[in-house]
Amino acid sequence: MDSLFQIFKVDVEEANRIASEANEPHRHDFEELMIGNKGVLEHFIDFDSVETRAPFVSFVTKGKVHRVQPKPLNGECDIWVIRFKSEFIPETTFQLYSYYHNQADLQLDCGICFNRLILLCQMIFDENQKTVPNYAIIQQTLNLIFTIVEGERQRINPYDEDLQKTQHISFKNFLSILEENYKRSVGVEYYAEKLFMSSRNLNLICQNILSQSVSEIIETRKLIEAKNLLVSTNKSISEIAYELGYNENSYFSNVFKKKAGQSPTEFREEMKNLLIS
Description:
Elements lengths: L4 E6 L1 H9 L10 E8 L1 E6 L2 E6 L2 E5 L5 E6 L6 E7 L5 H11 L4 E3 L4 H17 L6 H22 L4 H4 L1 H16 L6 H7 L4 H12 L3 H19 L4 H7 L5 H12 L3 H13 L1
Antiparallel strand pairs: 1-7, 2-5, 2-7, 3-4, 3-6, 5-8
Helix pairs in contact: 2-6, 3-4, 6-8, 7-8, 9-11, 9-12
């Protein structure tokens, strides 16, 4: 995906087009939220195939191997698809990983709450259609959508056994501590100590859930914020490096290029061109 944010609808025609093309399990470099108003979603994820009827919400985190096949039901299909880079809402993205890593699809009830989600999607779409969209409005509205969905998920599954698993609770606690400290120059031992466990156990938990080590997750969170600052501020590369706890600008630039595939300056210029076009 070349842009920070996209929103579009899958109707019957688009669902049939997708069905007619090769659609192998794949990974993507963006987050994807699907909100189904009408139709069915056949979803292959975590090496299992699940079919969910509308109304539903499906969230696929970046890097997950999956395949989606939207299908009409009773001749109707109406699914909002929202795609965004993790730096678009950096303060929320990692929490979404913990919420949805073991349950990508959620069937909802018809009613006022779901209708609000559809209305919010339409508001985002209308704003994004403007010649100069206000991305602050889109970001806040997208965060509100996730807040509503999380409230519904807790209401539908108040005693979800998976959420009681020790690993899941520890992982969520780690993300909370990370959110408060990722700009500091602290390592794995710091987070393990805060969680009253060994570095080895914390690494095992992170590998099981995100297939990344603690150090990789810390660097990924720093990278997300670095991209956010490069896009949303005029701060110099040195200022951003210092703000994120890097003692040397050159080290920050090397880490950024290794993970993002381009230098901070190149990324900033690319994003400026995308937002202007």
